[in-house]
Specification:
mainly beta, single chain, 0% helix, four-stranded antiparallel beta sheet, 19 strands
């Protein structure tokens, strides 16, 4: 199936970008606000169909939809970018399947499930103090890892009620970088000599 790239309307002065499983978010403009676009509802994994009424920020299309992805983006539903409230002064951004976490002038924040990129279930941006000093973020599925200046790691998980819980990861040496996969994560030690890997906590 051929797919054509298309410009996302409503975005200017993009200074950073992060892609999740069902959505993408960008850091925009001098205020470094977060704008997101993607699936109409990450929980149901669907785009808006032609028969449905388009909510604000979406254009109605008539393309056949396969697994939530329009076969032809030029004909299918094209979600416009929408600003996520409470996200300004952002420096770092990382997105998982149904959430994003960021660090910036106000510390660490996360938003999802659905967030402002869903018209059905908007969840507020929540402060996550454990990520405030993170120098790197890596997200996948419903989790985000934050790398601290001292080489420590913090694990943040989106829970069922839409809140986020954070736990420092013990027993690891000082790390230089971290990368999250679907069910696991790996980190490179500060001296570059070893890679440690583990399964996400349930």
């Amino acid at each position: 199936v051929k797919r054509r790239a298309g410009r996302v309307p409503g975005l200017e002065d993009v200074v950073g970008i992060a892609a999740g499983e069902n959505h993408t978010c960008a850091i925009v403009g001098e205020g470094r606000q977060v704008w997101c676009w993607g699936l109409l509802d990450a929980a149901t994994s669907r785009y808006l169909n032609a028969e449905e009424r388009a909510p604000p920020g979406y254009t109605r299309g008539s393309a056949r939809v396969e697994r939530g992805i329009p076969v032809d983006p030029a004909l299918g539903a094209t979600p416009a970018a929408r600003r996520s409230p409470g996200t300004t002064g952002i420096n770092r951004l990382s997105c998982g399947s149904a959430h994003c976490c960021a660090t910036g002038d106000s510390g660490g924040t996360c938003f999802g499930l659905g967030g402002e990129f869903s018209s059905h279930r908007s969840q507020p941006t929540r402060e996550v103090p454990a990520l405030s000093n993170a120098i790197q973020l890596s997200s996948r599925a419903l989790v985000t890892y934050g790398l601290m200046p001292d080489g420590g790691l913090v694990f943040v998980r989106l829970v069922e009620d839409g809140t986020f819980e954070s736990v420092p990861i013990a027993g690891l040496p000082s790390m230089r970088s971290v990368a999250a996969g679907e069910i696991h994560a790996c980190a490179l030690t500060a001296d570059g000599a070893d890679i440690w890997c583990w399964k996400h906590a349930q």
